[in-house]
Every structure is written in structure tokens, then in C-alpha cells.
Amino acid sequence: MEFNLISDSGVAEPFKAESRETLDMMVVQHFENFESFVENSSQTLPTFDDNNILALKDNTLHIAKTLFKSDTTTVYKAESSTDGEIAAKVQSPAVVWAYYIYVQLLGRLGQDSHLAASDRFLEFYSMHHYRQATVAILQYLPHGSLHNMLNKMKQDRVTMEEPLKMFLAIELLRTVETMHQADIIHSNISPSNMFVTFGGDDDAAPDQTEWTPDNTNWRRIGLKLGSFSLSIDLQLYGNQVRYTASRDDLPADCGTALPAVLASRGPYWSHDIDYLGVAQTLYFIVSDGNQLDEGDLTQDSEGQWHLDASKLRASLQTSMWVSAIDQLLNQAEQSSALLCKIRDNFGAQLASNPTKLKSFYRQIRKLKIDFAS
Question: How far is CA 92 from CA 79, 81, 226, 237, 271, in A?
Fold first, then answer.
């Protein structure tokens, strides 16, 4: 079977439905030796019984509640007979690309102490492939997404303290750096796809192990990136390929700022789609849960984009946040150095101020208790 993903001019449209179907067909044939991939494509997905139990091959799921539902995808909180408390993502028609991306991250990053995929990305425990659907067994994080947590804090009139915002910014930047080092562009970085983890019951409490920007004892506290369905494997496409997408094919939760900035540069993009995703997520963090829209930006006579900081609280280190977001908005070429520079700036601000460290230790302990769902 011949697969054509790239035009003669070296341009790919990775978000088009035809391209995504082609990618699934390309990769699924290579999963037969993966222990975590359960092949059932000759069978239909079993139905739930009267007790809300889904019996998969070698795994039984006791469904607790629905976490998310759309026309093609439903995510459940469930108890697995093999993995304990999990999230089960059921998609119809069957989709395996996100699982492929996670497997590539595991293989390319290995178990290096600073890059281990299980520390930075939402874990796949297994993937069950049926004729008309897939069931992904995923790590369940009780605090949910960054989007959900900040919205819940807003509803409860709780403000995230700036030191914790800086810590989450560092986590976000480090995670995207790590993904790009594995030759993968996420393409849909947003508050909804960043998941909050404050560690398990057996993890040392914040302040028992002092935080530093590279402290491996804090690996299970921070953010994990998930939702890889639109991710781009650069090793599959090749380094010289340019990417494009119509406005309708861009991620649904990208807001209005990201498409406007992309369109101002012309039809092609690459890693900069992730830099813009980081910019909008940083804004969501610093603004206490507000979406970055095109109206929050201005463009100068030289085509440079700038954030209007008037909606940010005056008590914040506004210049640091605005500088970070402006740099990300205007970075059209790949630059791991930029992500590292912004991360180091936030890290230095935290590490040089013991009072700030104590502040976010305290708030993490409180959020771990108050905002678990």
C-alpha cells in the first residue's frame, strides 16, 4: 500500500482527516510486538453490562463516572482489574495515533533522569484496538487539567499565588523542550491538555525536599502533557517538510490569537505552533484562567506581536510574563534555546527568593487536598 503524506512541493497537511486516517493505517501494522497493545480488530467493542462494567480482553473496567464526552470520544473514570484507578478513553472510529506518539516518546527519551517520558507525559497503560473503536487505558490524575483546576479556583474565588504560577510555567516549558528533543511537535498545547499532578501519597511533601530548577525529587509534582492526537512525528515526515492547515482544521481549543499570529507569517509553520500554544497557556496561568484572544494582542509596524498587559494584576512580575509571552509570539523558527532561556528566568526568580518558595510549597499542599476530584 502506498502512502502519500507530502506534496511534491514539500508541504504536508497533518490535520486533514485523510492524513490522519493514513497515519493510523501506517503505524497500526507495527504494534503487534508491543506488550501494551491489545489487538482485537476482528471483533466489535463489547457493550457495558447492567452494572456499568466493560469487559475487555484481559482487563475489566468498572466505570465510576464520565469525565468528558463528544461526538467521537468519551473519557471515563474507572477502576481497572489490572491497573487500578484509571481514565478510559473510548474513541469511535478507532484511533491509534496518540498511542503511537506516546510509544515514540518512551523509546526516544528512554529513562534519562531529566527526560523520562513517564515524568512529563500522561501515561498510556494499554491500548485496546477493536474493529470500530479503541479504548486507551490512561493514567488518571485527580486534579484534572490545568484548565479545569484554574476554573475551579476561579469559581471558589481562590487566586493562585505567583510563585506557583512560575513553577507551573517552568514545568510547561521543560515539558515542551523534552517533546521537541524527541523530534515531535505536539500541535495542540493548551490548558485543557496540560494535566496537574501533585504526586502520590508516598511522595515527599513540598518543603520536605527543597525545590531547585533541576531537582529530580520533584519529578512527580507539576504538569503532564497529554492529548497527542494531532502530534507530528518529524522523523516520519522528514526535517525539510513545511506544514500548513486551514483555519477549520486547526485545533478546536486554540482560540483566536494562535490562528491570527500564524496567518500573519504566511501559510507555513512548524515548531512555532507549539511556541504559540505555550504562550496562550502561560497567559491562562498568569491571568487566573482567561483565554488569550486576538484582542489581547497588538502588532507593530515591523510585524512584531505584543501582549496587552492591562488585564493582568498589577501586583505581578508583569514585565517578566509579558517578555516571555512576547518572545514566544514572535519566534517563527525552531529555538530550544528560547524555551530554556525563559525557563531559566522563571527558575532564577524562584530560587533567589526563599519566601516565594515557601509560598508555593504551602499552596501545593493546600491544593492537593482541596481540589482533588
Answer: 21, 23, 19, 26, 29
Residue type, 153: M
Cβ–Cβ < 8 Å for 105, 145 = no
Q: 11-139 and 146-370: same fold? A: no
Cα separation of the two ends of the chain: 46
What is the CATH code of the structural domain delimited by 11-139?
3.30.200.20
Closest CA to 63 of 166, 135, 153: 135
At 1, is the pLDDT very low, low, confident or very high (cuts 50, 70, 90)? very low
- Grid cell, residue 63, equals 466505570
DSSP E strands in 191-243: the ranges are 194-198, 221-225, 232-233, 242-243
Place of cell 502533557: 225
- Mean pLDDT of all residues in 80-91: 95
Enumerate the domain spans of the chain.
11-139, 146-370
Strands 297-299 vs 305-307: parallel, antiparallel or unpaired? antiparallel
Q: β-strand 124-130 against 134-139: which pairing, if any? A: antiparallel
> Does 1.10.3720.10 match the CATH number of domain 146-370?
no
Q: How far apart are CA 14 and CA 117, in angstroms?
A: 23
- pLDDT, one tens digit per residue, over 101-127 is 999 998 888 755 445 667 889 999 999
Q: Does residue 234 sit in helix, strand or coil?
A: helix
Calpha distance 77→79 (Å, rounded) = 7
Pull the grid cell for residue 170: 517552568
Angstrom distance (rounded) from CA 286 to CA 136: 33
pLDDT in tens, 126-158: 999 999 999 999 999 988 899 999 999 899 898
| Cell, residue 32 | 503487534
Residue 327: predicted pLDDT: 97
Is residue 213 reached through a cis peptide bond, with omega within 30 degrees of 0 on the bond before it? no
The percent of residues above 70 in pLDDT, for the chain, comes to: 89
What does DSSP say about strands 59-69 and 53-56: parallel, antiparallel, or unpaired?
antiparallel
Looking at 74-145, list the stretches that DSSP marks H as alpha helix, in order from N- to C-terminal side: 97-109, 117-120
